[in-house]
Specification:
By secondary structure, chain A is of the alpha/beta class. Chain A is built from 9 helices and 19 strands. Chain A has 2 domains: 230 residues, FAD/NAD(P)-binding domain, CATH 3.50.50.60; 127 residues, 3-Layer(bba) Sandwich (FAD/NAD(P)-binding domain), CATH 3.50.50.60. In chain A, the strands form 5 sheets. In chain A, strands 1, 2, 3, 4, 5, 6 and 19 form a 7-stranded mixed beta sheet that branches. The longest helix of chain A has 18 residues. The radius of gyration of chain A is 21 Å and the shape is globular. Chain A starts with a strand and ends with a helix. Chain B is mainly beta. The model of chain B has no long low-confidence stretch (mean pLDDT 93). Chain B has one domain: 2Fe-2S iron-sulphur cluster binding domain, sarcosine oxidase, alpha subunit, N-terminal domain (Ubiquitin-like (UB roll), Roll), CATH 3.10.20. In chain B, 7% of the residues lie in helices and 30% in strands. A 5-stranded mixed beta sheet of chain B has the order 2-1-7-5-6, with helices on one face. The chains are: A alpha/beta, B mainly beta. At the A-B interface, strand 8 and helix 3 of A face helix 1 and strand 4 of B.
Chain lengths: 365, 101
């Protein structure tokens, strides 16, 4: 039997939950599938307070935002969440296959919103596959969700917001952070986060990288080195750090497998994290009826994922024929909110990526 | 190691249940991902890689990267980062592609 629904949202993180909420409010019959143990995406492990405005729950901690969204969704009888469920494929007849434990089933939706998030990148160095080398987000997940720390002393690679925030959170649980190395000549993350870790005495070494993870079966140390302007390690500047864990916070790539399968046009836009689906300002991709939102649409922040989710959600509902009297007004307000979020110097990269995306979208018409 | 005190978070621990790792009885909290229980017990090496037999551990913790595949209750390629722990689970190191038991 094939389950039918008006809207399928793949991914129950900030973008997916908000998308379902906004579509669901207008009576859209919606199914959310989420592959984690519990939904909420990366929000549920985020203990820091959000910036922005009220629309993105500024001042609230990530895990509390997830709770709020799920509580709102509970009120809607037309929205269902399938947790611990992986969307495994999109087929040309518009059927998606899903796997929940041993149960394999099919869903045929009229619209799809892909809100599958992103996954951590890695970088090449000797021993980068050793147990004890983690994506920084992975350590944050088991630390903040399950209260388990797999480390005593950590080297953090990358001084963007993720590297800085997770270093601070490791310190909060009593784990030592030997250093944060950053290949660029400046700290990538917000000053407020950098100051916090600096006050705790953690050195942030710019123009440095990791060259080797030391150890036979697990990480027992790390060798770092200074790098020159071409990002090559400078011989003689190596230093061995006594650490048992290496966290990589070197960026994320959008998860777009389902979008590729659906035939959406894809473009490589490094400013957005790599390969992304070309889409219009309503978040609809070149595959008709397939929308994208959040980090899957371009790696940014949970705050912008929430707004993109809202845009995708009401746009999908509108295209299904739901009556949304103030549609234009809502979209305009949401777009203004996105512009505000991207206003500072940190938004420049994103705006450049989006400009490229817009040009590609116009060309594809 | 388990975090005992945290400035922001409260960890609601469920029921402590036994499971085995390579035949040895260990304990973890019911419903947490198997990896949390393994890490609490100091176990970070989860499988041996396909060709070079190199040790592999957790990497992404969101079910995407395939680094944490283990044999759980006879089923290989189980992503222990998103597989909830159940009482009596039989967890084993996976070698290569693993085999159904």
């Amino acid at each position: 039997m094939i389950e039918k629904t008006e809207l399928l949202v793949i991914g129950g993180g900030p973008a997916g939950l908000t998308a379902a909420l906004h579509a669901g409010r207008y009576g859209t019959k919606t199914v959310i599938v989420d592959d984690a143990i519990r939904p909420g995406g990366q929000l549920i492990k985020q203990t820091h307070k959000f910036f922005g405005s009220r629309m993105e729950y500024a001042g609230t901690r990530g895990f509390q935002i997830a709770k709020l969204l799920l509580k709102e969704l509970e009120k809607l009888n037309n929205v269902k969440i399938y947790d611990q469920t992986t969307a495994t494929g999109y087929y040309e007849d518009g059927v998606l296959t899903c796997l929940k434990g041993e149960r394999y089933f099919k869903i045929k939706p009229e619209r799809v919103i892909v809100a599958t998030g992103a996954f951590e990148k890695t970088i090449p160095f000797v021993g980068n596959d050793l147990p004890g080398v983690y994506g920084a987000g992975a350590v944050q997940t088991i630390m903040n969700l399950y209260g388990v720390v797999p480390a005593k002393r950590v080297l953090m690679v990358g001084a963007g917001n993720i590297g800085l925030i997770i270093s601070y959170q490791l310190l909060q649980t009593g784990v030592e952070v030997a250093a944060i190395v950053e290949g660029m000549d400046k700290i990538g993350g917000y000053q407020v986060h950098a100051s916090k870790v600096r006050r705790m005495g953690i050195p942030i070494l710019t123009k440095h990288t990791i060259v080797e993870a030391v150890g036979e079966r697990e990480v027992e140390g790390a060798i770092i080195s200074k790098i020159d302007e071409n990002w090559h390690p400078i011989p003689g500047t190596e230093k061995k750090l006594d650490v048992d864990t290496i966290c990589l916070a070197v960026g994320l790539s959008p998860t777009i497998d389902i979008l590729r399968q659906a035939g959406a046009k894809i473009a490589y836009i490094p400013e957005l994290g790599g390969d992304v689906a070309i889409r219009d300002e309503f978040m609809e991709t070149t595959a008709k009826g397939i929308y994208v939102a959040g980090d899957a649409a371009g790696v940014e922040e949970a705050s912008s994922a929430i707004i993109e989710g809202a845009i995708a959600g009401i746009s999908a509902a509108k295209s299904l024929g739901k009556s949304i009297p103030d549609f234009e007004k809502q979209i305009a307000k949401l777009r203004e909110e996105l512009n505000n979020l991207r206003a500072g110097p940190f938004g420049e990269k994103i705006k450049l990526g989006l400009k490229k995306l817009k040009e590609l979208n116009q060309q594809s018409k | 190691m388990r975090i005992k005190e945290h400035p922001i978070l409260e960890f609601k621990r469920t029921r402590l249940v036994p499971f085995t790792f390579n035949g040895k009885t260990l304990y973890g909290y019911e419903g947490e991902p198997i990896i949390a229980a393994l890490h609490d017990n100091g176990i970070r090496v989860l499988r041996a890689s396909l060709k070079l037999n190199r040790p592999r551990g957790l990497f992404c913790a969101i079910g995407h990267c395939a680094s944490c595949f283990m044999v759980v209750n006879g089923k290989p390629n189980t992503r222990v980062c998103i597989e909830p722990l159940r009482e009596g689970d039989i967890v084993e190191t996976q070698h290569g592609k693993g085999e159904f038991k």
